[in-house]
Write a structure and sequence with these properties.
The chain contains 11 helices and 14 strands. It has helices spanning 43-50, 72-77, 94-104, 112-122, 138-150, 168-181, 194-200, 218-223, 240-247, 272-285, 299-308; strands at residues 3-14, 17-28, 32-36, 58-63, 66-67, 79-82, 156-160, 186-190, 203-208, 211-216, 229-234, 253-260, 263-268, 292-295. The chain binds adenosine-5'-diphosphate (ADP).
């Protein structure tokens, strides 16, 4: 399969700060890459280099074979970018803005109406087409940002924190859209929300201090978590500490901690079924009711912390 993104030994300095340090990875059509790392890891710098907004200090990056420095015009045509705080022109209507963006991108003028129409349909913006952008909710503004990123039907799409600040329904919609577009493109999603990785990504790269620390699938990443089982126990509010003190002494439970009102998280070296049976038995013997048990929610977080600590 063709490589749509090829990054080789990429480095970028800001003065003395080495923000990106010898990064290499590639991406094929159909792949959705979760691009993860703690704040300051070099994610935005890498994405800006791919989009041609910053030049690398050394190394190369290619979009569909075009070098982002030497063949910047060709590369830019093939890439769509949703920056973290997408600059939108608040006084423009959605329609005017998307036409404006299409003209700036020098799209064929006869094709602009149909390209805008297609981006509007994909992002569900038809109801607000003639509304000024500044009057839209955050969720709609994000969709306008997405529409401008896909209006030229790019082969490579780079989305910086695409669901940041959205409510659960809006997040779901944006993730569906990413999944719908995935087969036709190579998509890079920078995120710090690990559930997003599960929802949309087929691959994960984690960087730390500008360096690659892992390149794997979400499943491999989870399995690398030292075989830990993580249970989230839902109880009545106010008895978290009591349950923590009941479960803490059990050998095999590596950590037991309250993680919110009525929630206790157990990390365990035992199997999932053994962990559940052991925890339930002890809690029930104390006359406490467990309302629900969630699994694994902490696991990717834990692997992420291990790898980037
Ligand atoms: P991330 O997106 O992963 O949070 P960034 O790429 O924004 O990371 O930043 C990587 C490093 O480069 C950080 O140490 C940051 O402080 C530094 N940095 C980013 N932009 C600039 C800049 N314009 N000038 C100087 N240092 C910068």
């Amino acid at each position: 399969m063709e490589e749509l993104v090829e990054v080789k030994n990429l480095s970028r300095k800001y003065g003395d700060i080495l923000a990106v340090d010898g990064l290499s990875f590639s991406l094929k059509k159909g792949e959705v890459l979760g691009f993860l790392g703690p704040n300051g890891a070099g994610k935005s710098t890498t994405m800006k280099i791919l989009c041609g907004f910053l030049t690398p200090s050394s190394g190369t990056a290619k979009i569909c074979g075009f070098d982002v420095v030497d063949e910047s015009r060709e590369a830019r045509k093939l890439i769509g970018y949703l920056p973290e705080n997408a600059p939108l022109y608040g006084e423009m209507t959605v329609r005017d803005f998307l036409f404006f963006v299409s003209e700036v991108r020098q799209l064929e003028s006869s094709q602009i109406p149909s390209l805008v129409e297609s981006a509007v349909a994909k992002t569900n913006l038809s109801k607000v087409l003639d509304q000024r952008i500044e009057t839209l909710s955050k969720g709609f503004k994000r969709r306008v940002g997405l529409a401008q990123a896909i209006v030229h039907n790019p082969k490579v799409l780079i989305l910086d924190e695409p669901t940041d600040g959205l409510d659960p329904n809006q997040k779901h919609e944006v993730r569906n859209l990413i999944n719908e577009m995935a087969s036709e493109k190579a998509i890079i999603v920078s995120t710090h929300i690990l559930e997003e990785v599960d929802a949309v990504c087929s691959r994960v790269i984690i960087i730390s201090n500008g360096k690659l620390v892992t390149d794997s699938t979400p499943m491999e990443l989870r399995l690398s978590g030292k075989g830990q089982t993580v249970l989230d126990l839902r109880l009545a509010a106010g008895i978290e500490e009591k349950v923590v003190s009941l479960l803490n002494p059990i050998s095999g439970f590596s950590s037991v901690k309250p993680i919110g009102s009525g929630l206790v998280q157990v990390s365990s070296n035992l199997s999932r079924s053994e962990s559940i049976l052991t925890a339930l038995k002890i809690i029930k013997e104390s006359g406490i009711e467990v309302k629900d048990i969630g699994f694994d929610s902490g696991q990717l977080d834990e692997v992420f912390r291990d790898l980037t600590a």
